[in-house]
Every structure is written in structure tokens, then in C-alpha cells.
Amino acid sequence: MLPKMANYLVILIIVLISLFSLVSSSPKYNHPYSKSPYNRRTKNHHTHSNFPTPKATRISTNYTPTWPSLDARPLPKWYDSAKIGIFLHWGVFSVPSFGSEWFWFYLNNQDKSYTSFMSANYPPRYTYQDFGRDFTAEFWDPDKWADLFQKAGAKYVVLTSKHHEGFTLWPSKYSFSWNAMDVGPRRDLVGDLANAVRNKTDIKFGLYHSWLEFFNPMYLKDKANGFKTNTFVKNKAFPEFKELVEAYKPELIWSDGDWESPPEYWKAQEFLAWLYNTSPVKDTVVVNDRWGKGTSCTHGGFFSCQDHYNPGHLVPYKWENAMTIDSGSWGYRRNAPLSDYRSSQELITELVSTVSCGGNFLINVGPTREGTISPIFEERLLSIGTWLGINGVAIYDSVPWERAQNDSIAKGVWYTTKPEVGKLFAILLEDHWPSGTDQIVLGSVHPSLLNISSVEILGLEPGKKLKWVPDGDMIIVTLPVVPPGTVNKWGWTMVINHV
Ligand SMILES: *[C@@H]1O[C@H](CO)[C@@H](O)[C@H](O)[C@H]1NC(C)=O
Ligand SMILES: *[C@@H]1O[C@H](CO)[C@@H](O)[C@H](O)[C@H]1NC(C)=O
Ligand SMILES: *[C@@H]1O[C@H](CO)[C@@H](O)[C@H](O)[C@H]1NC(C)=O
After folding, report:
1. Does the Cβ of 195 fall within 6 Å of ligand 1?
2. Of all protein residues, whose CA lies closest to atom 3 belonging to ligand 1?
3. What CATH number does residue 216 fall under?
4. Residue 411 CA: which ligand 2 atom is closest?
5. For this UniProt entry, which residues form the secretion signal (predicted)?
């Protein structure tokens, strides 16, 4: 009797132990592909030859306000899968909509084009603050924006809750009389967009936030003191940032305006520890890398490095390419000529090369002071959405191919892959479609290393197999004829099915 009981006890203990280890290693935020490098980064992030395997597999809630601890947090998995986001630069700068979103700064610096613009168009003594009342947003329909973002194929959106001008798009209790509820729209723009996006779509809601405020007297005083005092951070920036997170629960925080002073001045590590340990978004929030002088491309969550960052090769940490449609400005410019707008081909080229190299693509539009998105931006977003509607299978949830990012021979061919379903995607940009031949040589696809079962192309006859032959270390694919009126454009996805 007793020995039998002991046997049962042993079995019971073993069952309990295995259950416990199963639960405690629950890969809640693990990357779907075990080989992905993107859960953590290595010190030598500029060497991209070796492919580190992530160690941490779950998000703890015990981060200390130090970089080694904060940097060890794995990136919540939704972000790498999402790939495509929309960035919105909207604020009082959308009223003059001239020059750039740094209008106030340049005007204050007596930049000639800005001072002439003011003297030619506004009464003497007209101030930047006077623009606030014309930020009217009378045509703003956040539901329509949400619809457009969804049609664009975006999986997240990032709104400037407060740019360097300090004007908050939500009724911040720390920004008396310089916010969208007291002046201008008389609406909670952050809250209304958050509701529209969350009610109507599965798009994640993110917020941009600038630490510095160009001309906030508290900030200027701290700056004059060599950032040895922190009145501005204590009384304004820090509590306000927390208020923003608690009120709107953004799942992405795009931090900016950090570069004049070290992270210790901003209490950035303290903020991140709070964000990761106790904030309402601790399990899902994703942040970038602008948390004080010296942090860009080094600390935080994903790397945004510099604006329009696109390294062109695989890097072993998760990064984002924040790219504008208007090549001259993030905020809306009424006088931008068509030639300043990136074409759909340029944008899709940028999107494809970004995703192939492990990045996310954050595409920026500048809404107008009336609350509209101009048709040229709309058209670009819809083009991207049309393209993703056909080719999105090669983008969302994909991972970079370890062997090559772009082909070694064929120009304008970029790779992504989904190893778990045996698919390699070779995206041929339309402006590189071969001329004078119907064949394309893929120099990076070694038929001896990849047991190919078939090759298809998306956006033409569904399911139709393309002719292909091995040629030594390469394969030669025969491309089909593209009939006039084919909806797909800008980039063609060859699906290389393999065993
Ligand atoms: C959208 O969300 C807000 C806030 O959660 C809610 O008050 C509103 O009723 C929702 N609207 C719809 C159409 O679901
Ligand atoms: C692959 O991309 C890199 C970086 O953009 C470029 O320098 C190189 O020329 C490309 N290779 C081919 C064959 O086009
Ligand atoms: C390739 O896949 C086929 C079908 O599964 C299999 O019969 C064949 O042995 C594989 N060849 C190699 C070289 O792995």
C-alpha cells in the first residue's frame, strides 16, 4: 500500500512540476519564429553577420530604472508582426502650414523665409500663439481617418499628442490654455482619435510625445542652468507624460525632443520602469529609442535612429523607418509642389526594402488645420493599401531571410520569408521588371539549399505555377505576361514554395 502511494505521489509531483514549468515559460510575447533576432539586441549591433538567439522569452514586471534592465525587456510581439504604421504630425504648426512643423523655432530664430512670411501675411505683433484659434478642425471626422488608415493597410497609428511647440492635443491639466480643448478645435483630439481607431479597427493606437518644449520658460531656465535643475521635468513633462499614458493607454510611445539633455534629466529610466512595471499598458507597450542625449540607436525599445532611417542591410535589432510622404516636412505644407511628394513607387520601394531588412515602415502624413488629410496623401496611402491587399502576405508577420535581403544578381528584388509555412518571397519592384526578356535570374536562391516545390506570382492568375529551372547556384524564373488593367503595380511578389 505504502510503496504504491509513494509511486502516485512521485507521479503527481512530476506532473505538477511540468505543469508549473509550462506555465512559467509561457511564451506570451515570444517571437513567433524562434530564430528571430528582434527580441533583444547585442552590443555589437553593427555587425550583422551572426544572428543572436533571444534569451528572454517573457515580459517581467520587475524592471529597475537602469538601461541594462530596461533594455532586456523583450519587444511585445505585435510590433514586429505589424510592419506598417501611420504617423500623423498635427498641431498648431498645421495652421501656418508653411516651412515645417518647426515653424515657431525658425520664426523665433529670425529665419528670413519665416519672418517674411509673417510680415507679408499677418498683422505686426501677430504671435505664434495667435495661430491657435485657427486650428479649427471643423471637417475632422476621426471615423473617416480610421477607415482610411485601415484601407492603407496600417496596423498601428502614431499621433503627435504634443510636438515641440508644447500644445497638447488632449486637455492636459499641465498645459493650461495651450491645449486643443481650451483653444482651437475645442475637442479632445487624442481621445476622439483613440476611440475611433479602437471602435472601428484592430489598429493599435500609439502616441508621439516631445519631452522638450521650445519656449517653455521652465524648460529654458533648466537649460540655462546646464540642466542641473529640473523644474520643467518635475512640474510639467514627467507628470504630463504619465497623465497621457494613463488616460489614453497608448500601445506605442514614440518619444522625441530628448536630445538636448541626458536621460537622467528627463528621468527617462524612471519613466520607462514605471511604464514597463505598473502602467496600464505594461504588457503591450512598445517604445522607440529617443530618451535623452546618447540613447538614440542605443537604448529603449525599437531603434528609430535618425529620421528616414533605412540601413539597407539586416541589423540584429528591431528598427523602424519613419518616412514622410512630403519629402520636405513632417507637418502639412500648403505650398509643397507635387515634386516634393514621394511617388507610390518610391514609397513601396522603401516599404519593401525596410521590411526585408527587419524594419517597420512608419509612413507620415501631415493633416490640415481643418482636420482633413489632403487627397495627395490619401492617394498615396490608398496605393500602399491596394498593394498590401495583394502582397501583404509577404509583409505582415514575415521575417527577414537569413541568406540575403536583396538578390545578388537581379536588381530590385527583395526577400522576406515565412519559414514555418515553407514560403520564401522574392519581391520584384516594378521599375526593375526585366525588359526585353521574360526571364529573371535569382542569384541568391540556391536550389541545392532550398528544396523548391513551386513558384507562383501574386496578383495575376491565382494558383498558377510559374516555369522555373535550376541553373547551378541560381534559379531562372519565367515571368508571365501582365495584361493591361492589372490592379497590381509597384511590386510583384514571387512566392517560392519549398519543403
Ligand atoms: C466608441 O468608444 C467610446 C469610448 O469607449 C464609446 O463611448 C462609444 O460609444 C463608442 N462608439 C461606438 C460606435 O462603439
Ligand atoms: C542590394 O541592395 C544594396 C543596398 O541597397 C545595394 O547597394 C546593392 O547594389 C543591391 N544589389 C543589387 C544586385 O541590386
Ligand atoms: C525534396 O522534397 C521532396 C518532396 O518532399 C523529397 O522527395 C526530396 O527528397 C527532397 N529533396 C531533398 C534534396 O531534400
Report:
1. yes
2. 195
3. 3.20.20.80
4. 14
5. 1-25
